[in-house]
Structure formats: C-alpha cells, structure tokens
C-alpha cells in the first residue's frame, strides 16, 4: 500500500471500490493494509450511492493518474539520499566554477591567433558543462523523484479532504431528505398543493432549509418564490422550468454559485441573492433581460459580467455593495434606465469614464472604497437627474469641474476625503454652497478657455494680415525688380533711339 494512503483511509477505500480507478493500477499493488484495514460498507453506508461514487471518482482522478506514474518510478528516496544528492550537485557546481575560472585565466600561446583561441576556449567550456550535466543527471533525478512524491503527498491530502466533504454532504443530503419528509411537512404540502392547483406565490423564508427539491421547477405558474434566510448551498437547475417567475429571493443563504440555468428565466424582474458566498455571477444572468432590480450585495464578488450593461437595459436598481469589486464594467454606462446604483464598501479604484451616460440615475453611493478611489470622472456632471450622491470615506482630492452642472442634487456626503477643491469651508456650508462654488469654477474655466480661443483667433487674424501684406509687398517688389532689371540689367536690349545719329 502507498505510504501516503496509510493516512487516507477514505481515499484508499474509494480507490479499491471504484472499478474505473482500481482497474488501472498494477496487480502487484494491493490497497489492503493489514495494520490499518479500510472501512467497510457498514461503516460507510453513503458510499453505496452511485451519485456519491461518481462524484468521488471525479475528485480523485488526478490522484489515480499521478499514482500510476509513481508506481512506475518506484519508492520515494529516503532523506539521506536526498541530502547526499543535493550535496553532490553543489559539489559539481563548485567544480564547474573552478574549472571555468582556470580556463579563463589560462594564457594564450603566442602562435595561436586570438580568434582561434576564443573558439578553443568556448569549445572547452562546452565540454566542461556537458560532462558536469552528465554527472549531475543522476542526482537531479533523485531530487525530481522526491519532489514528485512530495507533490503526490499533497495531492493525496487534498483528495482525502475533498472526499470527506463529499461524504459529509452525502450524509447531509440524506438528512435533508428525511427532514423534508418527516420534519418539514410544509415543503411537501406545497408540492402536493401545486399538483392540485396552480400556485403563484411561495414563501419559505427562515425555514432552515438545506435542500430544495427538484420538483419545485415543475410549479409552472409560480410568479414569486422567497427562499431567503435558509441554509441552501445550491439552487437546483430545475428552477429553469419556472418560466413565469418574476421574483426570486434567495438572500441570506450559503450559496457559493448560481446555476447557469438562471438565464432561462425570461420574465424574472426582481432577483435578490444578497448575503451569500458568491465569488462570481454566471454570464447567463445577462440573459434575464426583464430584470428591473438586481441585488448581489454582501457577497465576495471580484468582478461583474462584462456584458451586464449591454444586455440588462431595463434594470433600474443595482446593488453591489459589500463585495470585493475593483472596478465596474464599462458596459454599465449603457443602462439608460438605471435610477439607483449602490457600490459602497468595495475596492473600486474609480468609476467608468462614461458614467455620465446614465442620465436617469438619481442615487449614486460609492462611499467607503477607502484608499482605492482617488478621483471621479469629468462626465459626472452629465448625470442631470442625480439627486443623492455619497462619496464619503475615500481619497478624493478634488471634485470634477463639471460638478456644478448637477442642478437636481439635494443630498451630498463628502466626509472623510482629503478635499482641496472645494475647500473645507465651502463643504461645511452644504450642498448648495458646493454646487455654487463648482459652478463658478466651471464658469471661470469656460471664460478662460474662451479668452484663450479669442487670443488665438486674434493672433491668427494679425498673423494673417501681416502674411497678406508681406505677400503683397513681395509680389510688388518682384514686379518692380523685374521692371528695373529690364532697364539696367546686363541682358537688357539697347534702345535703338540712343544709336541714332544727331
């Protein structure tokens, strides 16, 4: 039995149980350890379930493949052999360095040309290195074999941990099934009621559910499903059968992912998956084009789907706060219907440059992005319907010059920012004072730009007059010069009247 498998009884047992794995191993490698026999079926009843075995087969495939390679290579070298190999390699390297040093310092014979001598040195250097590599190959193979066994040991440990989790979840699934049948008759009652008549609303909030039956996907007339405040780790793909579903609330569960089938709900208008353990959203969520409200707050999202804004054109409320987002996709600027955007408590470095295209946006909250957010885009002033803005607890030094164009802004929070523009005394006077200050600053900027433009125009006009005058004088001088040269030039013909006799 593999030395690594002695500490992994579940892995050892599964390898012996699965034909797809055990058939690939050599016949001389028995998995039964006399000192530590594997568990029996009676000790692990859940392993008799074909789905559990299939999941475990997939989990240990890499282990089985690596194990077959190691069985061909032989046992792991002992520590003494490994230390000796390292010492020998260092010794050989030292010898190579010494030989090359002596080679470089060796004098060139007077009768040998310099180019020929360099070629000779290069050839000898190559010979020294080739001989060293041949000598090192055996010791390198020992270290490589040891590294492979070390990596295999880690792989075995990870596989054992995965199998334990799969086995535990299998046991939990059995408990959940019993819980549905024996302890929670409400779920069974809902499914039975759905068979007799159409249900439009189901509320299972706070029932401590850890498992949702696939049969829920057959309640075809369902419009609203509330599963919030439970212990769900997965949502069954069968929910794609709820073609009429408009509201789905699975907030405050233990979800680590959403099924791709979420994109098959064409009438879904409100989706709340807040308070889970999501690292990412499936790209298929972009296919829920009827969405009006999407709440993915209080998760561990690192990014949002790239095409989110390209597809969800009807979205009006988007909540992504309390995640780990470093940026918002640029496509979000195409959500022309968006009225509410809350992205506070993330790691945002800024907002998309074209955020001003969200002309219907009324509330924007990007507070508490702390050291990551240092500036706001100039297009912010184009949010003509913005009423509430919270950018507190960031590192913003100056508001964009276009800020004074936010005529409808009534609520503004700039606290805990190192603001220089506008100055603190203006900020303390409230939102109207800030708007007036920034509007005046914007007007001054426009006036300065207009003054520069006028100066450039005047300069062009003056330069143009001088150019035209110079051109005229040049042409006139050319004409006059030609006329004068016609009279006094060396090639000018003599007037016949001057040659007449008097």
Structure write-up:
Strand 5 (293-295), helix 8 (308-311) and strand 6 form a beta-alpha-beta unit. The chain has 10 helices and 10 strands. The chain has helices at residues 9-17, 19-22, 50-59, 61-73, 79-105, 114-183, 185-196, 308-311, 424-427, 431-488, and strands at residues 201-203, 224-226, 247-249, 270-272, 293-295, 317-319, 340-342, 363-365, 388-390, 411-413. A 10-stranded parallel sheet has the order 1-2-3-4-5-6-7-8-9-10, with no helix packed on it. The chain is mainly α and 502 residues long. The chain is flat and about 90 Å long.
* H/I helix tally: 10
Bin the strand percentage. Answer: 5-15%
Distance between the termini: 143 Å
The largest sheet is: 10 strands, parallel
Write the element-wise H/E pattern from the N-terminal end onward: HHHHHHHEEEEEHEEEEEHH
Strand pairing plus helix content: what structural class? mainly alpha
Q: Provide the low-confidence segments as ranges.
A: 20-36, 176-183, 479-494
Total beta strand runs: 10
**Helix share of residues?**
40-55%
Q: For the residues shown, what is the average pLDDT?
A: 79
Q: How would you describe the shape?
A: flat
Strand order of the largest sheet: 1-2-3-4-5-6-7-8-9-10
Radius of gyration, in angstroms, nearest whole number: 40 Å
């Amino acid at each position: 039995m593999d030395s690594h498998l002695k500490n992994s009884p579940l892995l050892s047992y599964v390898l012996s149980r699965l034909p797809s794995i055990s058939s690939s191993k050599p016949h001389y490698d028995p998995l039964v350890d006399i000192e530590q026999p594997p568990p029996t079926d009676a000790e692990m009843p859940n392993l008799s379930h074909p789905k559990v075995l299939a999941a475990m087969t997939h989990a240990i495939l890499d282990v089985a493949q690596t194990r077959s390679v190691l069985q061909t290579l032989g046992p792991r070298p002992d520590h003494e052999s490994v230390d000796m190999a390292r010492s020998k390699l260092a010794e050989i390297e030292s010898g190579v360095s010494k030989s090359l040093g002596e080679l470089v310092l060796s004098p060139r014979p007077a009768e040998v040309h310099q180019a020929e001598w360099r070629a000779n040195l290069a050839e000898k250097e190559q010979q020294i290195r080739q001989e060293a590599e041949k000598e090192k190959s055996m010791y390198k193979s020992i270290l490589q074999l040891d590294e492979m066994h070390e990596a295999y040991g880690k792989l075995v440990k990870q596989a054992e941990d995965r199998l334990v989790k799969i086995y535990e979840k299998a046991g939990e699934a059995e408990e959940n099934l019993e819980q549905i049948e024996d302890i929670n008759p409400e779920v069974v009652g809902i499914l039975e009621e759905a068979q007799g008549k159409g249900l439009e609303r189901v509320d299972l909030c706070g029932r401590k559910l850890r498992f949702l039956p696939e049969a829920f996907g057959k309640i075809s007339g369902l419009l609203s499903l509330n599963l919030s405040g439970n212990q769900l780790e997965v949502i069954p793909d069968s929910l794609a059968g709820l073609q009429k579903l408009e509201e789905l609330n699975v907030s405050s569960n233990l979800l680590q992912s959403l099924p791709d089938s979420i994109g098959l709900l064409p009438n879904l208008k409100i989706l709340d998956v807040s308070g889970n353990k999501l690292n990412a959203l499936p790209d298929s969520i972009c296919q829920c084009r009827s969405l009006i409200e999407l709440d993915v707050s209080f998760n561990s999202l690192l990014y949002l789907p790239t095409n989110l804004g390209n597809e969800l054109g009807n979205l009006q409320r988007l909540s992504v706060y309390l995640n780990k987002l470093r940026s918002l996709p640029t496509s979000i600027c195409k959500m022309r219907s968006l009225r509410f955007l809350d992205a506070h408590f993330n790691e945002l470095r800024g907002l998309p440059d074209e955020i001003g295209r969200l002309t219907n946006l009324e509330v924007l909250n990007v507070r508490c992005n702390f050291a990551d957010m240092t500036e706001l885009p100039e297009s912010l002033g184009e949010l003509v319907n913005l009423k509430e803005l919270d950018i507190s607890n960031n590192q913003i030094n100056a508001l964009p010059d276009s800020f004074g164009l936010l005529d409808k802004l009534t609520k503004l929070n700039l606290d805990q920012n190192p603001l220089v523009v506008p100055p603190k005394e203006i900020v303390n006077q409230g939102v109207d004072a800030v708007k007036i200050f920034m509007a005046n600053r914007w007007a001054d900027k426009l006036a300065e730009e207009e003054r520069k433009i006028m100066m450039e125009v005047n300069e062009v006009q003056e330069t143009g007059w001088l150019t035209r005058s110079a051109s005229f004088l040049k042409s006139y001088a050319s004409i006059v010069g030609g006329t004068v040269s016609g009279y006094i030039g060396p090639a000018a013909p003599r007037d016949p009247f001057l040659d007449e006799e008097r």
